[in-house]
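We emphasize that the prediction below concerns an isolated chain of 211 residues; any contacts that depend on oligomerization or on bound cofactors are therefore not represented. The input was used exactly as deposited, without trimming of termini.
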Amino acid sequence: MSEGALRIQLAELAKSLFDRGYSVGTAGNISVRLPDGYLMTPTNSSLGRLDPARISRLDAEWRHIGGDKPSKEVFLHRAVLTARPEAGAVVHLHSTYATAISCIAPEGGEAEIPPLTPYFVMRIGRRLPCVPYYRPGDAAMEGDVHQAALAAKALLLANHGPVVSGASLVEAVNAAEELEEAARLALLLRDVPGVRSLTAAQVDDLLNTFG
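Result of the prediction step, given as a token string:
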């Protein structure tokens, strides 16, 4: 896909996320890997009102070379994309249910989202680490995010929200949506007796089949 087509796709998918309440105001940011650099949503921009031509362009060394100034959380995307060379995009949202889970998950531990559906396992995987709290925009979180991303496709920023990677922009968006739905189910069923999660063998089978 050409850079121009990716810019249009990014704006369209970002608007879809915004229109369905996955981000509000100027919250959230998205990046896409290019052969020679990256596209990134601009700082203080709304995911619902992106101009494809003004989306930030960064070179292979993460230097801003075109478009509007990139998100102040560029280091967050760098941490994930350098940890996961197979990833083609990163989506960071403040979606309600995943953010709620980020407020109760143990910092530096694992989020409490059981494998309730096969799609959560297929798109997110076995692990969902929760990175300790940092002030938004604090580049000091880069090391912790990088370490968490080495072992997981998605992670939570404590008291902040989800960060999800995918092989393509479409896959990253789909995974972010699946994570939000899994978080909603986890909270809905949190105190319900007799909830049935997938077994360890069923999780293994999904990961072996869909990787």
